[in-house]
């Protein structure tokens, strides 16, 4: 039995998220179909995280096991074959044979997300599917947003940022980094942590934007966290601005 680890990137615009769903186009289903076509057997593809509908990924990790050693091409050949079969909005960046006990989800030690906000008053026909276009005038107060971001760091109960229908056993997570970067007309919000609840990153971004707009004071972020109430936080930021950048692991 071989255990194969994949690193993937995809444009989530046309997909109902990562996880297979009945009568819906999902990234997991498309990739699984291509793998099964190559190996000519049913496989179970395990993703490191289940990105939501419309969310993109530049560093999703997944793994699958195969008993068809006779059909096993080299890692380079498998990479090439998958990318020939996959649609243009999904690609495999890396293929690696790993220990049979490796699990892309349970062995992950952290995840890095980036959220993009279009910060120009002039809309772009090229970035509207990949950023959140918000009202520009007046510009967001980055100093206030950065101050509020400091309250998010550390191990905390993030119930206030948990989306409805979340099946996590605990709402406690650890955030290690909240960083803001200006990249031309795009404001990037980078969030790194041990793991994230359903809609957690997008709910955090929506709250930070309220603070940047002056609708909520930066000091209020601490009270929002302590409230452990979704109603205390801001709106859910749109899916198209969110990117899974990397899943981190201990050295394999």
UniProtKB/TrEMBL annotation:
What PANTHER family does this protein's entry cite?
PSEUDOURIDYLATE SYNTHASE, TRNA PSEUDOURIDINE SYNTHASE-LIKE 1
What Pfam families is this protein classified in? Answer: PseudoU_synth_1 (PF01416)
- Quaternary structure note: Homodimer.
Enzyme Commission no: 5.4.99.12
Q: Where does substrate bind?
A: 113
What is the protein named?
A: tRNA pseudouridine synthase A
One annotated GO molecular function: RNA binding
Extract the Gene3D superfamilies matched here. Pseudouridine synthase I, catalytic domain, C-terminal subdomain (3.30.70.660), Pseudouridine synthase I, catalytic domain, N-terminal subdomain (3.30.70.580)
Class of enzymatic activity (EC top level) = isomerase
């Amino acid at each position: 039995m071989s255990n194969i680890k994949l690193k993937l990137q995809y444009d989530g615009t046309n997909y109902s998220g990562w996880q297979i769903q009945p009568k819906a186009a999902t990234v997991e289903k498309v990739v699984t179909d291509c793998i099964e076509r190559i190996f000519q057997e049913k496989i179970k593809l395990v993703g490191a995280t289940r990105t939501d509908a419309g969310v993109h990924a530049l560093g999703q990790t997944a793994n699958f096991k195969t008993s068809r050693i006779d059909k096993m091409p080299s890692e380079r050949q498998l990479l090439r074959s998958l990318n020939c079969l996959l649609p243009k909005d999904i690609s495999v960046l890396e293929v690696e044979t790993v220990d049979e006990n490796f699990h892309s989800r349970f062995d992950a030690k952290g995840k890095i997300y980036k959220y993009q906000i279009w910060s120009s008053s002039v809309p772009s026909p090229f970035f509207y599917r990949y950023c959140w276009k918000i009202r520009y005038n007046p510009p967001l107060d980055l100093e206030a947003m950065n101050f509020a971001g400091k309250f998010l760091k550390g191990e905390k109960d993030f119930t206030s940022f948990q989306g409805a229908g979340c099946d996590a056993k605990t709402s406690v997570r650890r955030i290690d980094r909240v960083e803001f970067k200006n990249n031309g007309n795009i404001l990037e919000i980078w969030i790194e942590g041990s793991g994230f609840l359903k809609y957690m990153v997008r709910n955090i971004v929506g709250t930070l934007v309220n603070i940047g707009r002056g609708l909520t004071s930066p000091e209020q972020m601490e009270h929002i966290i302590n409230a452990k109430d979704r109603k205390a936080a801001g709106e859910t930021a749109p899916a198209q601005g969110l990117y899974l950048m990397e899943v981190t692991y201990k050295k394999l």
